[in-house]
Amino acid sequence: MKQPLVPVVPMSHTAHIRSHRKPRRTATSTIAVRAGVAGGVLSTLAVAGASSAANAAEPVTQTLELPTLTADLAAQVAQSADATQQAAANYQLRAERDAAAAEAAKQAKADLAEAKKKAEARKKAAEEARQAAAERAARDAERPSLTTTASASASVSAPSSGSVATVLAFLQAQVGDAYVMGATGPNAWDCSSLVQAAFKQVGVDLPRVSQDQSMVGTDIPLSQIQAGDILYWGGKGSAYHVGVYIGNGQYLDAANPSKGVVIQDLSGYPASGAVRVL
Prior knowledge:
Blueprint lengths: L26 H115 L5 E2 L7 E2 L4 H12 L4 E2 L8 E2 L1 H10 L9 H4 L4 E3 L9 E4 L7 E7 L2 E5 L6 E5 L7 E4 L2
Parallel strand pairs: 3-4
Antiparallel strand pairs: 1-2, 5-10, 6-7, 6-10, 7-8, 8-9
Helix pairs in contact: 1-2, 2-3
């Protein structure tokens, strides 16, 4: 019996080389492949689970941060409230200052008006005193001067001319004015500026300071002083105070800050010397 013919498959020209043959897939390799696929699937599931767990944990993280955000917001609200309260306090303080300034300006205006009113009244009184003194001086000029001798400490006589009366009238009109060192009127004086202003009313220009005023005119003994004579305290040429004798043992001066312009008794504060310029 003839054997059936088996087709002969031509071999590759490299088939005889062992390294070029295709390896046969054994049962062990098949199991390994399957294990790898299963491991990959499990790894994918693990990653997906971890991702899901992470996504599920996010709300918890956000919930834990809420108290911090709420505390910050509360702090900001508190700061805003403090700023608003401070601004309101500043506005109130400014309003109070403005009100005080307005009240002070109103009071200053009233004081100025009152001062002007008093100054006008003094000016009117001084003018009336000048007129009365001029009339009295005119009457005295028509009759012989009468001199009354007093004690050895002082001698008083009536004004011998209208100029003296004018000087005395000006001085009496300033009684009550303030004493301010260096002031020259019209409502505040020091001792020498008052004397200088009084004699300027009759055209006599005296030096500004008491030291120099004690050097002018004619020296007069204190036992022979008359109304209108300038009295000084201290040495001649170094006097520290001056005033004007007004008669009857009295003198008028800008005394000091506590007294102002006053009339005083010469016996209570005897002068050092006297000079006459009229």
